[in-house]
Structure prediction request, 421 residues.
Amino acid sequence: MIKRRSAYPPSTPCRGRTLARVPGLLIAFLLLLQVEVSFAQNVTIKAQRKPLKDLVVSLQQLTGYNFIYNSDLLSNAPSVDVSYTNTPLKTVLEQSFAANGFNYNINTKDQTVVLSRQVRPAAPTSQSPAAVQVQGVVKDDKGAPVSGATVTVKNTNTAVVTNNLGFYSITLPDNNRTLVFSYVGFETYEVVVGNENSVQNVTLKMKSGNLDSIVVIGYGTQRRSNVTGAVASLNSDAIAERAISRVDQALVGQIAGVNVRQTTGLPGKGFSIQVRGSGSISANTEPLYVLDGFPLGQSSADGTGNFSGGNALDNINPEDIESIEVLKDAAAAAIYGSRASNGVVLVTTKRGKVGKAKISVSGSAGYSEANRKVDMLSGAEWVDRATEMINAAYVAAYGSRGATAADDQARRIAIIGSNNV
Prediction:
């Protein structure tokens, strides 16, 4: 009797049933291995100038994979040369499809290949900054807020004006980040605002330079460089250079074409002013005086230096004068009418200004005397001189006629005659 030997120890509980299970597990393993091999099989194919659409058909036949793609995806695809021998499918797809702008996705479970067009990443571009709201305060070099300053986006019409506290708020576009700050009498200031700078406090510096002088032309003020009429002016600095007691005295020898003369030697008397010369022998030739925009009454000086209606400039302190303008052309008549036929003298007085209080003190003193004194006689000398003159007069009158004893000469007969034809 032949005994069957077991490979397991005697104490092992499983004997015949374990051997019965081994062939089943081996068969299942071999089947899985066969499936894996069929899904990862290699490709052998050679062709020249083969369209990708035809290559897909060949690969489907060789591998058993189903290719999924849009019908228009490979319509304009290029042709390729392929020469593969026992090459993995992934390598074929990488060199034939991915190299020509197509993506592929292999799904071994479903045995499919999904084709799609590659999406090229956009070229890196500098990201434009978004619009920024900028605000801040504009001050001068002394720390005081600047009211009315203009804040402009450079090279645009976008602008705002600061309030009485110097505050402003403006929106900058995404393509322009330069702000321009400007105000009369201050230097223009530019600043480039970054994305993180939403607050811009600015300090403006005083602008030093020679500004055009301003002249009063009757209907407003203009820069001297813009005035086309015959206008002459005299500012307060020129008036303060000389010690004068009257306003009209300041015009003596200061303005071309204006004749200023003194009609009497009495101290404090007014001057006669002629802008256009003497247009009449007896009529008034004085110009029209306008004080701070208000015309004053006209009057003319007589031979003694007195004005019939009082001089319009008598009660004006020369220290209170800011400027004097003389309108010499006919354009003045268009403003003040016939009263300006002899010209117009515009007198502008000083007035308060914004800023710290300022007190100025000025004074002058002088005396007046005759240039040459007359050599006067004493009392005794005057009597002797008078006696000498009287005696000489009598001698001259009667010395040559001789003495008369009777009055016959006084009573002689006078002869009267008359002849008519």
